[in-house]
Amino acid sequence: MGAYELVQRLEKLRKQVNSYGVIGVVSVMLVIPCFVFLAPHIESESTFHLIRNIAILIIPVAIIFIILSGKKRKEFKELYKGTFVNAVLGEFFENPRYEWKNGFSERSVADFGLTRMGNLFSSEDYLQATYQGVHFEQADVKVQYYSSGENSHTTTYFSGRMFVFDFPKFELLPIQVFDERFTYRAKTAERFKMYKIKMESVEFNRYFDVRAAREHDAFYILTPQMMENIMELRRRYGSVLFNFSSGRLFLGIECGMDAFDADMRKPINYAEEKEKMRNDVRVIIDIIDTMNLI
User: Helices 224-237 and 270-290: crossing angle, nearest 10°?
Assistant: First the structure.
């Protein structure tokens, strides 16, 4: 399939996703007000039955269009990611393995020691590859807690990208570095007693909370240059979380956005989409370079 045919196909799918979704949502929004606000005040039995019958007809239509929207979205993702993401990954990485439907397991994310875990979890866009000898994994992750009851609500603990990098230079007990803006930090693993560590940099202490199983490990790894590197990633990407442990670096960027995804609100432009994918890839390379992992 050529670039023009690809864009045409993606555009058709994108419009179907949006239009079917709108029809489904609007249909539901037409039914709910009728029963919540209008029906209780209808005295005529025939009018009530008329509204009920209309609702009975509309609800299946809404469900059908919502299902159609979901199917077209899946078809869009398969075509989009299979075309743009896979093509770009080969430009930068060795032996890339990309699985957009899969991600990190819930157990793995809990073991990363970055975020508190809730009762809702999702992860996708799993990527495993090597860059200049550095092996890494990454995926989009969302962790939430749903509280049921009279005042039910959902709290998002983490939404963004998580990374795992080989860090064989140091075999250390855990050293956690949390951005002070990040509220839902991982609870300390029971097998380690973690201590709050104050670093020598006043600026670093202002923006980060450091905890370590052994104080001298924290000072050994968080050199002035390493602290500056972490500060630089914070300036570029916002809220960042780190856990140095057992020869690996676990890193989270709480950006609230998914990598390797199209903006369904905008028409597809072939050149722009490829550049967007490259930018998502460059985040990984930038982390490796900035943290001197090579």
Answer: 160
Are 142 and 123 a contacting pair, CB within 8 Å?
A: yes
The predicted model scores a pTM of: 0.85
Q: Which of 23, 31, 81 is nearest to 59 (CA)?
A: 31
Q: Is residue 268 within 8 Å of residue 4, measured between CB atoms? A: no
Q: What is the pLDDT of residues 36-51, one digit of tens each?
A: 555 555 566 666 666 6
Nearest CA to 259 out of 242, 274, 277 is that of: 277
Please write the tens of the pLDDT for every residue from 263-293: 888 898 888 988 999 999 999 999 999 998 8
Residue 133 structure tokens: 């000898």
In whole angstroms, what is the distance from residue 86 CA to residue 80 CA?
10
Residues linked to residue 208 through DSSP beta bridges, in sequence order: 179
Whole-angstrom distance, CA of residue 79 vs CA of residue 77 = 5
Nearest to 230 by CA among 211, 212, 204: 204
Rounded to the nearest 10°, the torsion over CA 254, 256, 262, 263 is -140
Contacts of 57 (CB under 8 A, 6+ apart): none
Asked whether 276 and 285 are in contact (CB, 8 A), the reply is no
Q: How many Å apart are CA 118 and CA 120, to the nearest integer? A: 6
Provide the residue type at 75 as one letter. E
Buried b (16+ CB within 10 A) or exposed e, 59-77: eeebeebbebbeebbeebb
Half-sphere exposure of 6 (CA within 13 A, CB side): 17
Q: Cβ neighbours of residue 246 under 8 Å, at least 6 residues apart?
A: 171, 172
Written as six digits, the tokens of 74 are 């899946």
